[in-house]
Amino acid sequence: MVNSHEQVLVKRRLKRNEMLDFFRQIAPSIVTMETCGSAHY
Questions:
Q1: Both ends of the chain: CA-CA distance in Å?
Q2: Taking the model in full, what pTM does it have?
Q3: Rounded CA gap, 35 and 12, in Å?
């Protein structure tokens, strides 16, 4: 999560079972996820 000045506020690695609880606790936001190049195959 970044603020309006693009400073990182939250950078976490989440396991699949932790994601829903994490996102329920924060304000609505835009989420980006990093994957490897072959993740879509």
A1: 28
A2: 0.53
A3: 14
